[in-house]
Structures are given as structure tokens and as C-alpha cells.
């Protein structure tokens, strides 16, 4: 094996924690382990060089200092990767971690499997890493790695793990696993509840060299641009990250797989996480990632956060009964006002409504557009806005070529016969495109053909068993024709719609589904399932289950402008996975042409 010219310095002792921690700055720590099994029959040749590569990468591109890093390698008697030393290094890495800390663990060596000790593995096998003294000291199982590395980490800590070894796909028993599909689709699959260990509140991400049933290969010197022997996975990782330090999780795993596939390797690197992962975020946050394009923090608003809500109910009382008139949409508006006040904490003065049983608040095309302008105009970081619409939805010929089916989805005002409909392109322009980073918009649409009514960038599709979510990003050619690019809008925007673009949304008659009055099926389902703590994933699954159990074929949809954080609370939704600021009383709405200033209780 080819090793470094000189052994590394003695690893630094664990840092002493001061007695007062309130003012401690966020810290970085990293452990890298390279095991060549020198003198053993299972000797490898590239693992020590992998460790050298990773330490150099962390220091050069991600701002780690030498004192931040511990390295174990079996060409140095002072830093041998024995079972005991690996456990001590991992305890040094994780002990005392606090919110804001960034931790990194890299391992290159043998990986193996052994009998599952606690019944949490479908295949009956625990995955292991193999210390240099495994013959006398034993291996380290995934259960033990999780206990030492993951279980004790608090919320706000980021742990990144890179494992270049065989059988490493689920080596930390994390809850979510990412699967890439053809056509840009991504499946994010969650382990069955009985297989899940106690969850950690920390952000933990693992990229591993192969599936649990695969082996990870070595690369000879010079075979892939590497001067020394190396692991195929570490070489692929280094090639992508060196070229693109700010690469997203999705870009990294995709390009690593392409790198290995192009060089004839069968192993398939895996990506998993403890919580639902934003695949568009940088895999390795740090100075280089910021320089590569991380956006600055939103500007601080010059006023307190504002909350506004608009609810629209249109029964089309201008139409004859049986010829397009509806019966439950105005009632839906009343229902949503109660939800806004009870569950979202809105106050009467923050809610405006349009309804066609009140001549002062008619939902004409002009009044709808004016209401949309009131809802979003002047939005600043920290503001929260909510839009609910119950009425007819339609379709018309696509005007700008951004729809795969050639049809724009529309909302239908009460005066549509004279004034026309409102297409999704106009809805997006009025509601989405002017919103700044740091504000939040919820949209709930109970109407036909509403699946992509705001042309948001991301949508999700649950699997039939509810265990995985397929995430898809709209293609560039279909992204809102005149926009300057797919990243133009950074606000937190999430939409629930009553059905697919190809479907209709049904009404519920009084006495059905627990409704005391006529109502929309989607709004009724929303009213029954929404709660302050329900996650986006559980809300979508609950809406679909509620409608299915009551005999409705429509399939509610969920989409967002940023990558959808499905394990985040819908009520406290944030594309960053936390809760945004705001949520307190804000300025009441200004006057709307033909509409009341606030909703009745």
C-alpha cells in the first residue's frame, strides 16, 4: 500500500468545555479514518490516501483548521484505528455538541455484516465497519455507530457522514432514504415505524459507497485521475466536491453515480438522512459553499411582521340552478375562517373575504385581482399570507407553452361570462413572483383542475403504501416563460389543491361527511384533518385517506416553490425546515374595491 510520507501529528486532546457556554461560538469538528489493514490477509491499498484526501478537502474548501480534525490511520502507531480508538474519536466528535455546530465523519476501509442483534433489520443483518484490530476487538455495528454518533446530538447540530466501505447503505439506520428515478424523479422513502430507532433532533446526513447488498471497490493509481490508490467512492466524492464545493445533495449523489458508472463500477452510492432532506441545499455547508452561491440572509424588515388572509367563496348565484350554480362554496369560506382563527392564530382584522351572497364583497375578476394585490403587495421578511378559494376551476388554451398538457388552469370569478377567467400564469404573477425571501404564503384551492394552479416548482406524489414520497421539479422549459430562472422566488410558498389538473373537485351535501351544510369535499377534508402540529406529509396523506374513505375519487395535491419539507408542520411551514418569524398580530387589511375590510366572525 502507498501511505503518506510522514505520520500525522498526535491527535489533539478533547477540547475542554468552559463552565459558561452561553457565549460559545459554533464549532466544527471532523474525524477521518483510513484503514489499510497492513500486514493482514485482507490488506487494502487506498484507504489511508482516502483519509488524506478528505482531510485536505475539509481544510482547503470548507474552512476546517488542523485542530478541528482527528485522523486515525494504521500506518501510524500513534493513531491506530483500533475499535477503542475509533470509539474514542467518535465520542470526541459528538460530545458536548450544541446548536450551530458542524460535525463530519469519514471512514474508508472494510465494511461487513453480522447477525442483527435487535430485530431492526429487514434482512436480519447489521452493517458494520471493521477496525484494524477486528480479529481481537470485534467490529462496530450500525446500532453502536448510531448510539455513539447520532443518539445524543441536540437540535440544531449538523452531522455529515461519508462512508467508503462495503455494505454501507444504511449504516446509521437513518429514517429517510433517497432513490433517484428516471426523468428527474426522486423517491424519498421512510423506514417502517417498527424499524425506526428513537429519532434524533439533529440534522444527520449520510452518503455511503454502495447499497447494503453491494461491495465498494478500489481504484488503482492513475485510473481515475488520482495519483495514489484510492477508494472508488472517495475518488468520486472528491472529484465532484472539488469541482463544485457548493453542490446540492441531489447534484452530489447524481454526479457521483455518473462518475462511477462511466468508469465501469457497479456500486451505487446511497444518500440517507434522519429528517426529510432538502435535496437542493448544499451537501457540505461552509465557506466554499457560501462562496459558490449560498444566498445572504434576508434583510431585516423595517416594521413588525404582517399577517393577512383572504378567503373566497363563489356559489355562482348569477347562474340558474342546475347550470353551474354551486351550493357549498360560501359555507367553505366560513369554515376556513374558523380554521384560520383556531389553528393558524389569525385575528378578524387580518382576514378579508369575497363571497357572492354579499353585494359589497362580490368575487368579480376585478375584485379578485385587487384582493390578490392587497394580500401580497409590500410583503417583507417575516410576513405571513393565506389564500383560500372555493369555486369553479377551469382550463383554457395554454398561452405561453409552459404546460405539458397544453392547458392553463384557471379560477372562475362570478362575472366570468363578461370579464373572463384568471389563468395560472396570472395567478403566479400576482401571488408568487414578487414575494421576498423570508415571507410565507399558504394556498388552499378547492376547485377543479387545480393541481398545478400556481405553477410552483416542486410537487410530491405519495406511493400507494404511503411509505415514500416522489418529488419532482418542473423542467426549465416549463418554468414560467418570462422568469429569469428557476430560483427567482425564494419565499416559503406551499399549496394544497383539491385534485389533479385532470380531475374535478366534488361537493358534499348537508349531512354527509359530518358537514352540517353543503360544502366542498376538499375544504371539508381540510377542516377535519388540519391541526397545529400535523406535518405536510401527514396532512397530504390524511386528506387523501379522508376523501377515499368517504367515496371520493379526487386526489389532493401538494406543491411548493422551494424543495418541499414534508416533515415540517404545515401550520408553521418553512422551506428551511424550521418555523419562520411572524405569527403575531399584524396590520389589518386596507380597503378593497367592492369588498369589506374584514371578515365577520
From TrEMBL:
GO molecular function: cysteine-type endopeptidase activity
Biased amino acid composition, Pro residues: 1-16
Cross-referenced Pfam families: Peptidase_C14 (PF00656)
GO biological process: proteolysis
GO CC annotation: cytoplasm
Chain intervals for the UniProt region annotation (Disordered): 1-24, 580-601
Signal peptide: none
Domain Peptidase C14 caspase residues, every copy: 27-275, 307-561
InterPro entries tied to this protein: Metacaspase (IPR050452), Pept_C14_caspase (IPR011600)
Family of this protein: Belongs to the peptidase C14B family.
Annotated protein name in UniProt: Peptidase C14 caspase domain-containing protein
Organism from which the protein derives: Alexandrium monilatum
Amino acid at each position: 500500500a502507498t501511505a503518506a510520507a510522514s505520520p500525522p501529528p498526535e491527535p489533539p486532546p478533547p477540547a475542554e468545555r468552559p463552565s459558561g457556554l452561553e457565549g460559545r461560538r459554533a464549532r466544527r469538528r471532523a474525524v477521518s479514518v483510513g484503514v489499510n489493514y497492513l500486514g493482514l490477509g485482507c490488506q487494502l491499498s487506498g484507504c489511508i490516501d482516502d483519509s488524506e484526501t478528505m482531510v485536505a478537502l475539509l481544510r482547503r474548501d470548507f474552512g476546517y483548521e488542523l485542530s478541528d480534525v482527528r485522523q486515525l490511520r494504521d500506518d501510524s502507531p500513534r493513531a491506530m484505528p483500533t475499535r477503542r480508538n475509533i470509539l474514542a474519536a467518535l465520542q470526541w466528535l459528538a460530545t458536548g455538541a450544541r446548536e450551530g455546530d458542524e460535525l463530519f465523519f469519514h471512514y474508508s476501509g472494510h465494511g461487513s455484516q453480522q447477525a442483527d442483534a435487535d430485530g431492526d433489520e429487514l434482512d436480519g443483518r447489521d452493517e458494520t465497519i471493521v477496525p484494524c484490530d477486528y480479529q481481537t476487538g470485534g467490529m462496530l455495528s450500525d446500532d453502536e455507530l448510531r448510539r455513539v454518533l447520532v443518539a445524543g446530538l441536540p437540535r440544531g447540530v449538523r452531522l455529515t457522514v461519508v462512508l467508503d466501505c462495503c455494505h454501507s447503505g444504511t449504516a446509521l439506520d437513518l429514517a429517510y432514504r433517497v432513490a433517484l428515478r428516471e426523468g428527474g424523479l426522486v423517491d424519498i422513502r421512510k423506514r417502517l415505524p417498527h424499524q425506526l430507532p428513537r429519532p434524533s433532533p439533529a440534522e444527520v446526513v449520510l452518503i455511503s459507497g454502495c447499497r447494503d447488498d453491494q461491495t465498494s471497490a478500489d481504484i488503482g493509481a492513475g485510473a481515475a485521475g488520482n495519483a495514489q490508490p484510492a477508494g472508488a467512492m472517495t475518488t468520486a466524492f472528491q472529484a465532484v466536491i472539488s469541482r463544485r464545493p457548493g453542490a446540492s445533495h441531489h447534484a452530489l449523489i447524481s454526479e457521483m453515480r455518473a462518475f462511477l458508472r462511466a468508469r465501469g463500477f457497479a456500486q451505487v452510492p446511497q444518500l440517507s438522512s434522519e429528517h426529510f432532506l432538502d435535496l437542493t441545499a448544499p451537501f457540505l455547508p461552509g465557506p466554499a459553499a457560501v462562496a459558490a452561491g449560498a444566498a445572504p440572509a434576508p434583510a431585516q424588515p423595517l416594521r413588525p411582521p404582517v399577517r393577512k388572509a383572504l378567503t373566497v367563496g363563489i356559489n355562482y348565484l348569477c347562474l340558474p340552478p342546475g347550470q353551474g350554480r354551486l351550493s357549498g362554496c360560501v359555507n367553505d369560506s366560513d369554515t376556513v375562517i374558523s380554521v384560520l382563527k383556531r389553528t393558524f392564530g389569525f385575528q378578524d382584522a387580518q382576514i378579508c373575504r369575497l363571497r357572492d351572497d354579499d353585494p359589497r364583497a362580490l368575487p368579480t375578476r376585478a375584485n379578485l385581482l385587487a384582493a390578490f394585490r392587497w394580500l401580497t403587495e409590500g410583503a417583507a421578511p417575516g410576513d405571513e399570507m393565506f389564500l383560500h378559494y372555493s369555486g369553479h376551476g377551469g382550463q383554457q388554451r395554454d398561452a405561453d407553452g409552459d404546460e405539458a398538457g397544453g392547458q392553463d388552469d384557471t379560477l372562475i370569478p362570478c362575472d366570468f361570462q363578461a370579464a373572463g377567467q384568471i389563468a395560472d400564469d396570472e395567478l403566479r404573477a400576482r401571488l408568487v413572483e414578487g414575494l421576498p425571501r423570508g415571507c410565507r404564503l399558504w394556498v388552499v384551492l378547492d376547485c377543479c383542475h387545480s393541481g398545478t394552479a400556481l405553477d410552483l416548482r416542486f410537487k410530491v406524489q405519495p406511493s400507494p403504501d404511503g411509505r415514500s414520497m416522489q418529488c419532482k421539479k418542473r423542467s426549465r422549459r416549463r418554468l414560467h416563460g418570462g422568469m429569469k430562472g428557476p430560483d427567482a422566488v425564494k419565499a416559503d410558498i406551499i399549496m394544497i389543491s383539491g385534485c389533479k389538473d385532470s380531475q374535478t373537485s366534488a361537493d358534499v351535501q348537508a349531512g354527509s361527511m359530518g358537514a352540517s351544510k353543503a360544502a366542498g369535499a376538499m375544504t371539508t377534508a381540510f377542516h377535519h384533518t388540519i391541526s397545529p402540529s400535523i406535518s405536510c406529509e401527514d396532512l397530504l396523506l390524511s386528506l387523501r385517506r379522508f376523501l377515499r374513505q368517504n367515496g371520493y375519487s379526487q386526489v389532493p395535491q401538494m406543491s411548493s416553490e422551494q424543495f418541499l419539507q414534508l416533515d415540517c408542520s404545515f401550520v408553521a411551514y418553512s422551506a428551511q425546515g424550521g418555523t419562520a418569524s411572524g405569527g403575531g398580530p399584524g396590520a389589518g387589511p386596507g380597503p378593497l374595491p367592492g369588498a369589506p375590510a374584514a371578515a365577520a366572525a
